[in-house]
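Blinded run. Sample ID left blank on purpose so nobody reads anything into the name before looking at the predicted structure. Input follows.
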Amino acid sequence: MFPFDLVSERTTRKIDSGPSRAVIPALLILGLLSTPLPSQSSRPADSKLAVKPAAFATNCGNATAQVIFDGAKLKTGIYGVNKWEAVGDPDLILIGKQWWMFFAAGPGPGRPVEYFSAYLPEGQSLETSTTYPSDANGWHILGAQADGKGSPVALIPAPPAGGWDAAGAETATVTRGPDGKLRLFYSGYSDSPYNGHPMKLGVLNDIRNGVGAPDAHNPVMAATNPWEEYPKSNGELLEPAVRYLPANKKWIMYYTAGAWWGKPANNELAYADSTDGIHWEHRAMLGFGSPYYNVDWLYNVKRHRYEMTIAKEPTMKGGGAPRDIVWLTSSTAGQKKSDWTGEVTLLQFNASDAPAWYNKGALSPAMQYGNLPGESKRLFVYFHSYGQGQSIGRFYCDATQ
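Blinded prediction complete.
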């Protein structure tokens, strides 16, 4: 979740069509159009199977954490662009043999906060923390230039003035549907939530050539339950983490509802499912409470278990306090807290060896196992952090069972 102070400072900005799109490199076109898109979710685990608790090697978390996009350096042009003030909310997807990262940054060409992308050259590992242009094999922001003055390509077309997502698009997840096409589920708002404007969820369809098409049904989800609203009685839905499960023929979403970082602190992790990715049913609180804020999840086909990472406030007070990142597991796509067990803290923000770029907390974990030889047990977690600016970094943990 992006800090609302960045939103509130810029929501009076006129929303326009933004600059013309940067020329899309052939690498992107080949990656998104020519490469087959494998299914992201395999057959779900048998709910009767016992789930073993996790054990991770000592290289886990803090020992392997490295910054990728350093918030203190965003304006210097070191990443090929020089206009951003903050980055956050990363998510990852493998396209063929190439990893892509989708993330929020601001200010954008048409909105204070919107979505952009970066890619690794084919065959590079998620262990990579270097960046273009200093390293040609590092993360390359789409639209970045070697002179540091590139114009990043906004993923979501500029909305009309006053539209439901005109002031911001953030906290997204990228996934594939049963048709193999990429979709982005994201939260949007027409003005600062502090001004009483609700956050709702929408979908970007058929991502290619650096942009996607907003679904005609947007927003596809708004608050309808009292627990999905913050104290001002305005709906707050954000942080959707969505996957399609072929055996169930359903989309499953975990999301954050009722987010409010003031006093009293409030937010609820929730579950919903859908047969079409547009109409969402069975919305219910998981029961974690406000110390647990946002999630990512996957199905681990090799270990027959679902896995989830969550940003957790360790003193259990919730609100906007700094957070660690924890891991849990389940034999099903659990609809209540008791389904998720075996909690392990992967990253501690206040550990003695925590560097300045994340020593004020971590949010928005995005989890993927590596795809290269020897990486099948290596869990990579990307996240955004608070420290010296708002940054994006990653750590990894080697699972031993």
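Unblinding after everyone has recorded impressions. The first strand starts at residue 66 and ends at 69.
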